[in-house]
From TrEMBL, chains A, B:
Its EC number is 2.7.1.-. It comes from Kitasatospora setae (strain ATCC 33774 / DSM 43861 / JCM 3304 / KCC A-0304 / NBRC 14216 / KM-6054). Keywords: Kinase, Transferase. InterPro entries: ATPase_NBD, ROK, ROK_cs. Belongs to the ROK (NagC/XylR) family. This is Putative sugar kinase. PANTHER family: N-ACETYLMANNOSAMINE KINASE, ROK (REPRESSOR, ORF, KINASE) FAMILY. The lineage of its organism: Bacteria, Bacillati, Actinomycetota, Actinomycetes, Kitasatosporales.
Amino acid sequence: MPARFGADVGGTSVRAALVGADGALLTPLLDLPRSPDLIGQLADLYAESAERAGSSVTVVGAGLAIPGAVDPATGRIGSVPTAPALRGLDPAEVRLAPGLPLGVCNDANAAVLAERAYGAARGARHVVGLFVGTGVGGGVVVDGALLTGRAGLAAEIGHLVVDPDGPPCPCGGRGCLEQYASGTAIAAAYTAATGRSVTGAAEVALAARAGDPQARAAYAGAGRLLGVAAAGLANLFNPEAVVLGGGVAAVWDLFGDDLVRAVERHTMPLTRRGLRVAPGRLGRAAGVLGAALAATG
Amino acid sequence: MPARFGADVGGTSVRAALVGADGALLTPLLDLPRSPDLIGQLADLYAESAERAGSSVTVVGAGLAIPGAVDPATGRIGSVPTAPALRGLDPAEVRLAPGLPLGVCNDANAAVLAERAYGAARGARHVVGLFVGTGVGGGVVVDGALLTGRAGLAAEIGHLVVDPDGPPCPCGGRGCLEQYASGTAIAAAYTAATGRSVTGAAEVALAARAGDPQARAAYAGAGRLLGVAAAGLANLFNPEAVVLGGGVAAVWDLFGDDLVRAVERHTMPLTRRGLRVAPGRLGRAAGVLGAALAATG
């Protein structure tokens, strides 16, 4: 059975698995803290996955999702803020095993490709993906092709401007969506409202489930802003589907209604017609599945 | 000499000319109030242009720019709010003269195609065009191709949301960019600040040129918001060029600095690198030139 190896390099962890042609995970999703020798670690993860899969599986390619940009002209990795060692790497020169070529893709781009192939946007030719975790990432498919822009930097949905006079953003701008609607922002909003410090948005979600009105309000506020952004993106891309993925998508019940209401309020009527707005279906595996789609070979 | 006929149907007027392969106007730009028999009027404008051009010019196609949507799948005209008679028209079935096929294109899309071919974005493969007149229109070129979306409704830049609680917009939404940064909005902002009613943004521009600080502020405010929108669009499309066209572009000196400053403040550093931000160069002829580019034949 043919398979592709997919690996998703996060800020602090690496996930990997072998993926079948139909998007099924053929091996358990390995999830490890990132090692300083990232390429060595990827080779190890590949070897372990291949061993687990056994001899009935033939690996025909490998793909890597990275939290950074890939130059669409050269295929080389550009800026990767959390993994500077990857910068300038030409994946065509890397082999995780003899004869195994490597493809590479931005992680949010990989996730939208996976949701389109196997998940919430199946069959759509025009898709906008918002991926909300620690930050807010984005991926856009235009007429079946990834939107890359001139230098692979496109689809930075987290850096749409919500308030030009808002707080400074690490990107250098001000008032970016990521400052209001990321997991980090949800936790900060809750702390600002209650004076209670939390470990992150997951803790706020637990409080919201337990009925804490301020925790619910933190999620509702983020949902509304994500919906306003999604509406603007719908007016811009006229897609079939808008998918909200990433860690925060796991608690869609805490903000999905607010998000959908804002989309309905701010999307132009003809554009809204038939528009699907849905949480991602692939969860933690989206990046790995998308990386496998980006595999060459 | 081969030429294409281009016609730009506005809300109340029609412009037309014959265009050479290099984008030169081969006949004077005719500009008439729109007649109820629009197709008949277009045929007349074609006949007049062909007569003026004389026998050295061979017309090989005709194109129409419309203030509405074109279905990318069928080529048929969709919704055209200011010209309902065009709705459902299949341009392939229209002949302005025997043997002369007709192409059709959204007007802001036509304008960005023209600016890319002959104007401020020459040679760029990724371009965002904002067209500011009575309203705010948009056109986007992604890797050399027009962004159409699923149903030809994409690139509605005027309906990005500036303030979710802002004033209602005719589109059905609220707080759309068009409510803050169109010619109409510039005139309204001036009237709100001074109590003086004006005929439109052109009158405010005259006042600004004469040193009226509130007129200058109305343009500066619009420029800043257009710059914030342009920055978001740059972060989204990672283009080589952002072009600001339409009637308001003629007074770039009144808001260009504010626009560029906002772009610099809100665009991600790598995306900003080498990004051109410039006023359109084609003025009133942009739609006609773009329509000729959309000509079939």
